Amino acid sequence: MSTVPMAALALLCAAAALGPAGAALRYRPDWASLDARPLPAWFDRAKVGVFVHWGVFSVPAWGSEWFWWHWRGEHRADYESFVRSRFPPGTAYTDFAPLFTAHDFQPRAWARLFQRAGARYVVLTTKHHEGFTNWGSSVSWNWNSVDTGPHRDLVGELGQALRESNIRYGLYHSLLEWFHPLYLADKESGFKTQNFVLKKTMPELYDLVLKYKPDLIWSDGDWDAPESYWNSTSFLAWLYNDSPVKDTVVVNDRWCSNCSCHHGGYYNCADKYKPGTLPAHKWEMCSSIDKLSWGYRSNMNIAELMDETSIIEELVQTVSFGGNYLLNVGPTKEGVIVPIFQERLLALGRWLDTNGEAIYETKPWRVQMENSTSTVWYTSKGPVVYAIFLLWPRDNVLELSSPAPSPDTQVTMLGFAGTLKWQKSPAEGLLITLPCMPASPQSGWALKLEGVK
């Protein structure tokens, strides 16, 4: 339950401003300097991650992970009716915490599942907007997973298991807490006071970095207040200059109002963001298997879930446009990743077992997709071009108009032995004869094109 004492926090903030021995640091606490930091190479190479939304909201498991907000907001009547039907009279949101047991949480089993899904990194919610921390934050009173509920350090246990499996570890952290008295008081002041930031947000961020040494910090809850309130740039300057992960850590773009898609290590821009064209900045598309929620819902039905085809299509389109794909699951309050989520993750992993060469460590090609269709997408790796087609042509002949063939052109299909026959198309592209394949519900096959321009 260690955290950064206030005196130590003051020293860290001073270090962020002055640097060792009072010297100027490489990265200053301003966006112009911070945005100039090169993104650590591992992130772009990784391409595929798993997001995990887990917290006290997993107890009611209804509506979404914004349960508490809606219960106290415009949907109050619906949520009060739900609570009355499921829980004892007088139940408050805080009463859910002891029921967040994590009895069946097996971090090594999670790590094996994520590894089989093809994930190169995993991002866990350390604290959502409800304020409950999945580690023993000493500034959270008893609103944390060590002092109540699981009585376990969920952040630490999963981190250890992931690193044993050589999976990078990311920590989601909400800057704000909806109903924390200090935050509400700061908000009432027009964010002229910073008691919540100094006594809660920043001590927790420093604690997470020093204790767990994350590979990635996925910040959220930024939208209410400007950087002058959050002190985000001071924290990031320390993170990049003096922290134990200064050379490897990656951060997103949610650090203050009007920050998304403008500042940060890589851009999320918005939940389920799809740019449509090739962005100039590294980005990540976060999506959820449950299309209606990030947290677990006990009443979800199959029509509300992404199927294997839609997951693969999102992955391919995202990577073709230079993004990373972060696919979310919401475990139950007991710590179970339900079988339908496991099935979807394992299906993605099987596809990547065959086609991962066209995804991992690739770069966008000069053309991202065929102009005439959105069913063929391109990636590249050095001189090699990969054409990933999402629909199998009825006549087993695939036309690609974008690659220009040469006498040295060679075409193979990942997962299929031997080379494929091709000829120049009337449009100076390629007509590729595909192998006869049995009918399959699979979506997405990758051709490896060598010797094309």
UniProtKB/TrEMBL annotation:
It is found in: Lysosome. It catalyses: a neolactoside IV(2)-alpha-Fuc-nLc4Cer(d18:0) + H2O = a neolactoside nLc4Cer(d18:0) + L-fucose; a neolactoside IV(2)-alpha-Fuc-nLc4Cer(d18:1(4E)) + H2O = a neolactoside nLc4Cer(d18:1(4E)) + L-fucose; an alpha-L-fucoside + H2O = L-fucose + an alcohol. Its EC number is 3.2.1.51. GO terms for biological process: fucose metabolic process; glycoside catabolic process; lipid metabolic process. SMART domains: Alpha_L_fucos (SM00812). Residues 1-23 form the signal peptide. It comes from the Eukaryota. InterPro entries: FUC_metazoa-typ, Fucosidase_C, GH, Glyco_hydro_29, Glyco_hydro_29_CS, Glyco_hydro_29_N, Glyco_hydro_b. Keywords: Glycoprotein, Glycosidase, Hydrolase, Lipid metabolism, Lysosome, Signal. GO terms for cellular component: lysosome. Alpha-L-fucosidase is responsible for hydrolyzing the alpha-1,6-linked fucose joined to the reducing-end N-acetylglucosamine of the carbohydrate moieties of glycoproteins. Belongs to the glycosyl hydrolase 29 family. This is Alpha-L-fucosidase. It comes from Melopsittacus undulatus.
